[in-house]
Amino acid sequence: MFGKKRQKQKPDDAVIQQLMQIVGDSEVLYLKEDLIAYECDGYTLSKGMPKAVIFVKSTKQVSDVVKYLNTVGIPYIARGAGTGLSGGATPLGGEVIISLVRMKRMLHLDLKNRKAVVEPGYINLKLTQSISDKGYYYAPDPSSQYACTIGGNVNENSGGAHCLKYGVTTNHILGLEFVLPSGDVIELGEEGIPDRPGYDLLGLLTGSEGTLGIVTKITVKILKNPEGKKTVLAYYDDIGDASQAVSDIIAAGIIPAALEMMDSIAIEGVESAAYPVGHPRDIAAFLLIEVDGIDAGIEDQIDEILTVCKNNNVREIKVAKDEEERGLWWANRKMGFGAMGAISPDYLVQDGVIPRTRLPEVLAKISEISKKYELRIANIFHAGDGNLHPLILFDASIPGESERASKAGSECLKVCADVGGSITGEHGVGIEKSAEMRFIFTDEEMTAQTNIRAVFNPEDLLNPGKLFPQPGRCVEIKREITKVVVS
Amino acid sequence: MFGKKRQKQKPDDAVIQQLMQIVGDSEVLYLKEDLIAYECDGYTLSKGMPKAVIFVKSTKQVSDVVKYLNTVGIPYIARGAGTGLSGGATPLGGEVIISLVRMKRMLHLDLKNRKAVVEPGYINLKLTQSISDKGYYYAPDPSSQYACTIGGNVNENSGGAHCLKYGVTTNHILGLEFVLPSGDVIELGEEGIPDRPGYDLLGLLTGSEGTLGIVTKITVKILKNPEGKKTVLAYYDDIGDASQAVSDIIAAGIIPAALEMMDSIAIEGVESAAYPVGHPRDIAAFLLIEVDGIDAGIEDQIDEILTVCKNNNVREIKVAKDEEERGLWWANRKMGFGAMGAISPDYLVQDGVIPRTRLPEVLAKISEISKKYELRIANIFHAGDGNLHPLILFDASIPGESERASKAGSECLKVCADVGGSITGEHGVGIEKSAEMRFIFTDEEMTAQTNIRAVFNPEDLLNPGKLFPQPGRCVEIKREITKVVVS
Q1: Closest to A296 (Cβ–Cβ): which among B171, B297, B423?
Q2: Which residues of chain A have pLDDT under 70?
């Protein structure tokens, strides 16, 4: 059929034909070469080939597709920009991917009541860009915000550097429209009601990682720009001193807009990448601290932060002299993950949470894991809220290194769970950490959750195999435990 | 058996005997005269006689009681101080009330990490009182805070005047231990994890009005006292001007700690009660506005608030000159509900939410309802977050007035729902507003919620008849609709 556009040839598969009927011929990908890009999201250690990818344009299309797929028993996954870091949008194999990237409009903007209604494919950063000239912004700022969609943010309950003061996505969602796995469309919220009647389904759906329904419309809070902001950079020779400064700042009653820490390997990375700041290479860590609010209050807080940092043996400390310097510091920090590519062929981002006060001890244990698996580990830390990102550097072309990286990552999460923390702060569980859910949940706690999933998603056609340990794996784990008991 | 303590006589009832076995003889009330006080909570228009009231002292006792009651199929209700305003702890008749008031200890206080662990019977105000000398407080402040328990607050997701800036109870809960209707004990949260893995069960349980489990331990956030606070009182001749001032303050980017409004009938009440301030009797409404934070920022915000109020035709405006005056203004405001007793034999509090901008229109409609039912209605309004409390004044001794008050209340909620608001802002649905859930939820939305209830509470033994319309009533409604279609 040389010279003919390949998509014009009608496929033999009846399911593909029916999907084309619903969303249009040009909106269905089904050839292997077109599907390869959809084998995984930003978590690349697990891949699966979807049956098809379809691009929907309306809530009705989503509902019609879901109803149809129910009749033929084919599983399906909603996908935004595919920037997720835990495999939440990665197929196990054979699913239909429902891409929401063409549902990308802002439907309504209401500055007076501080809210906007967007479709799920609307890009995070675009919202702030479209209202910043009027003095407003949207608070959740994941590092991928230039590409990730707000629908994806809702499903992963995404955070970001500035979520210490302003909260993660769930704190900024006023309403959702979503399609249940039955095909029914339900709406929740809309108005800024302090305590919504009934069960908090809005909270339940937010962060459910695409396992309870497909979000088709989102009402978000927008915030007024703070009057001013100031940013401090503090260099430390000892990571214990830097950690103590973090605790002391919070104890002083200051809640900075952001309070970030990077260790020496992470610094080596960002200084080798696109936006070097000139950080000293011989420090143990730096803190990047930003305060915002009413001008009159900012100076007082900065004075107090400087005092706290000095009391904790800071080597050098400085306030950004202008917006350009502040911008450079942040560009450098936000390159954190990607910059690992400058010092390692591959890397795996982990995402544990720990009590702030346990940081020195946890870093020591991560250092032991690094030695055990012979892999370098950099640490980037949303220090204010205890969210640690160990970045495990490896080379996938060396046989066995991917597996070692994966095991090292799991051990890092175990360390976090063992000090009373958690296995994910903002990246979600997805495929990557479903087995590690057992580090923090008992059987009863897991059952309470899988029961909820079964109520929404009784046939398990929506995003199967995510978030919870797979039955096969549970059995394995249980069997091991039994062995220990028996022997 | 004259002269003998009546509780010493063993009851014949096998269930009562078994309950005594679990919690101790002295911890079970079963005689009618002892049970009367438990026929209702703070919502007095609906009453039911429990089978027994038992006082538990540990999580294990709660679990044992629940497991036992499951075997005999007897329904049960958890109850704190009984200050709820929607009948959430009111029996339908025949339930065992599990009172948590003797589980009232603080188990752990961790000022460094800003958290406290309390039992469910711990009284709200006691928490702030016990840490205020160290410079900390617990934020949610319902008007009943001198009596209500934190366990009750969790179940009702309670708010308060200062929740505008600091959020309602759900924003202050870090962890929960609760007993499921199966008797299993599960724990959620504990550490301040920004995005908890798995479904947000903590959010789901919070505000579930005692229908999903019995809370037995709570980890709450505690906050550092603000450096300073200032309070403004503004008198208005026109309620539209007062409403516009509220919108303009928020639009200016100020989030006051509290932003309250009271209308002329509410003022008549509070000026007749225990803490008269000397408010003019001929104004349409006053605003009570409090700003807190870092001293340096407060003056700027107060200046801006004064300007906004003046631009909206304020009659008189003043800043509290000292803590004593500030305290008097707040005592007067917090008497709001109770003060209705000074001007009416009975009153019914309603609890609607509306978009702030629709206030004048909603108040006009409430005024029409007042005329229609020939009942005076006062209005107290958490204006900042749109939470309106119409207080319907009536005399229960006049035949038919209770019913008229109840109908007027329902119509007020319909008005709130019709402008895009909600039927409850902070008091919950309980028995009172279960029928009104249909004002805001579709069948599909209701089913999604009742399915969740069924998963947790399959036998419907835990707090039956609350939160959702009763099947009987649904059927009635559906039948009416069918009639319309057929005719």
Answers
A1: B297
A2: 1-9, 190-196, 471-487
Predicted pLDDT of residue B481? 27
Distance (Å) from the alpha carbon of A253 to chain B's nearest alpha carbon: 6
**Residue numbers in B near A168 (CB within 8 A):** 194-195
Determine whether the interchain pair A455/B456 forms a contact, defined as Cβ–Cβ distance below 8 Å.
no
How many inter-chain contacts (A to B, CB under 8 Å) are there?
225
* Measured distance CA(A323)–CA(A279) in Å, rounded: 18
Looking at residue B110, what DSSP letter applies? E
Across the interface, of A208, A301, A454, the residue whose CB is closest to B294 is A301
Does B482 have pLDDT greater than 70? no
Q: Considering the domain B106-224, what is its CATH architecture?
A: 2-Layer Sandwich (3.30)
Residues of B in contact with A355 (CB under 8 A): 113, 191
Nearest Cα to Cα of residue B167 among B296, B255, B229, B297? B255
| Min distance A383 CA to chain B CA atoms (Å) | 12
CATH annotation of B6-99: 3.30.43.10
Contacts of A258 (CB under 8 A, 6+ apart): A161, A162, A164, A165, A288, A289, A290, A382, A384
Name the nearest CA neighbour of A190 among B384, B420, B443.
B420
The three-class DSSP label of residue A224 is strand
Which one of B185, B195, B413 would you mutate to disrupt binding with A, by most A Cβ within 10 Å of its Cβ? B195
What are the chain A neighbours of B112 within 8 Å (beta carbons)?
A: 247, 251, 357
Looking at the structure, give the CATH architecture of the domain made up of residues A344-418: 2-Layer Sandwich (3.30)
Domains B228-334 and B346-418 share a fold: yes
A444 closest CB neighbour out of B186, B224, B225:
B186
Q: Do B187 and A445 touch (CB under 8 A)?
A: yes
Give the closest residue to B145 by CA, choosing from B173, B116, B167, B169.
B169
| Residue from the list A157, A197, A444 with its beta carbon closest to the beta carbon of B440 | A197
CB contact under 8 A, B195 and A170: yes
Question: Is B156's pLDDT higher than 90?
Answer: yes
Residues A26-61: tens digit of each pLDDT: 999 999 999 999 999 999 889 999 999 999 999 999
Residues in chain B within 8 Å Cβ distance of A433: 197
Write down the domain spans for chain A: 6-99, 106-224, 228-334, 344-418, 443-486
Q: In B378-470, where does DSSP find H-type helix?
A: 401-418, 437-440, 443-456
Contact A456 B433 (CB under 8 A): no
The answer to whether B155 and B209 have CB atoms below 8 angstroms apart is yes
DSSP run (H or E) holding A486: helix A471-486
Could you tell me whether strands B285-293 and B228-236 are parallel, antiparallel, or unpaired per DSSP bridges? antiparallel
Contact in structure between B417 and B364 (CB atoms under 8 Å)? no
**DSSP category for residue B7:** G
Cα–Cα distance, A373 to A375 (Å, whole number): 5
Instruction: Report the distance separating Cα B148 and Cα B414, nearest Å.
Output: 29
Tell me the CATH architecture of domain B228-334: 2-Layer Sandwich (3.30)
Please state which of the four CATH numbers 3.40.50.300, 3.40.1440.60, 3.30.70.2740, 3.30.1490.20 is assigned to the domain occupying B346-418: 3.30.70.2740
Rounded to whole angstroms, the Cα distance separating B263 from B381 reads: 9
Q: Which amino acid does the sequence have at A76? A: Y
Angle among Cα B158, B161, B163 to the nearest 5 degrees reads: 60
* Beta-carbon separation of A194 and B420 below 8 A: no
pLDDT per residue over A322-366, tens digit each?
Answer: 999 999 999 999 888 889 988 999 999 899 989 888 888 999 999
Q: Are B239 and B258 in contact (CB under 8 A)?
A: no
